[in-house]
What we know:
Two copies of one chain form a homodimer.
Chain A: H1 3-18, H2 25-32, H3 37-43, H4 46-58, H5 66-69, H6 75-92, H7 94-103, H8 112-135, H9 148-161, H10 163-169, H11 182-200
Helix pairs in contact in A: 1-2, 1-7, 3-4, 6-8, 6-9, 6-11
Chain A binds a DNA duplex through residues 2-3, 24-26, 34-41, 45-47.
Amino acid sequence: MDARQKILVAAEKLFAEHGFEGTSTRTLSQEAGVNLAMISYYFGSKEDLYKTLVTERTAPFRDAIESFVSLETTAWQKMELIIDGYVDRMFESSSLHKIIYRELSMDNSPIYEIIVNHISKNMQNVRRIIEMGIESGEFKPDVESQLVMPTITGTIVQVIKSPTLSISLLGLDPKTNSIFDEKHKNHLKKYLKSLIKSYLLN
Amino acid sequence: MDARQKILVAAEKLFAEHGFEGTSTRTLSQEAGVNLAMISYYFGSKEDLYKTLVTERTAPFRDAIESFVSLETTAWQKMELIIDGYVDRMFESSSLHKIIYRELSMDNSPIYEIIVNHISKNMQNVRRIIEMGIESGEFKPDVESQLVMPTITGTIVQVIKSPTLSISLLGLDPKTNSIFDEKHKNHLKKYLKSLIKSYLLN
DNA sequence: AGTTTTTAATTAAACGATTGATTAATTTTT
DNA sequence: AAAAATTAATCAATCGTTTAATTAAAAACT
């Protein structure tokens, strides 16, 4: 792994754990195992590193839902794909999503615009899928298409943002259990599908 | 309003907007309209101010749910009280709750323990209420009592953390609308009750 | 009631430490 | 030989905190 990549990996970890302002360039370069000056050399500044990190790492996730819209399936099957997809990728890259959903509450964050663009696109696609389900009579006519997505992402965020709290909430031993176990991931998927299904379906 | 109070008010606002590390003591004292040294004078340090702020401001909310448990109502009526209560107080003090649910993702935050204690108590009470509903046959036998609370708070957090995004998501004009309008608050309450009701009730 | 004394509140200035960033020299790679 | 990557040292700026001096308020005393 080259220095540039090492910095990005360390940045994702530390920004997730201590926030952007809470991570110094010195701590960051030490964690990455590179010289302090490499941050400026590769990214220009700490802020530009932040922007690059979020832009690069969110890119693979974008438009993932876009492809669902035109699938030849029922609206509910699309919703299942969305829930599975969101749980999978938010569990997989929990550090990145900690960052994203934390910075979302700070209007003047350097990455605020990047995040809002990233999220609102997916939000609108989900909304469209739900409205298609309403029109076809598959979903109840009076469901709130705009609020379903915040419920899905909000629930997942609550679980991944504090693994310690989540595990203790589930009544499990923090030493032998991790919220990132396949078991608990499927548990959450099942719950979300059941929750949203009972709300949407007739 | 005395200097101590002015500092707490300014701290709540700025910590919510820019985070703890993102707020300097100088910016803070300026916003509060007091001398820089007053922070140390009244609170000892910036970190102690943070702890005091969160401890003092979360105190009124604590044990609010505790009283619901023993009410002589149906389990669902208790859930309605919980949803209404949570939406009301999180809308009322959105700055504080921005802070709380942001810091929850940072294990080594100075206020992490305070927050976890604050949250987990309420979580357990909600879980107990749901389990009472299951036992009495009012709720479905296979509902996930532990995950309902993360869904409720998670959804509310998603809405209040970024008013701009929420408003645009609802297809409204950011200039004439605020997510904190009574109208949208009731909208969210209605949605959450409908969502949780269809999931819990037989 | 008026004066003095004591305590509390507030101020400007300064402290050392750490911050993000840059420099110029050196090593490595091409 | 040229370009790219890496290094240690240094920059000014900002950080949280403390100091010592000053003002305001409260308490004590005659």
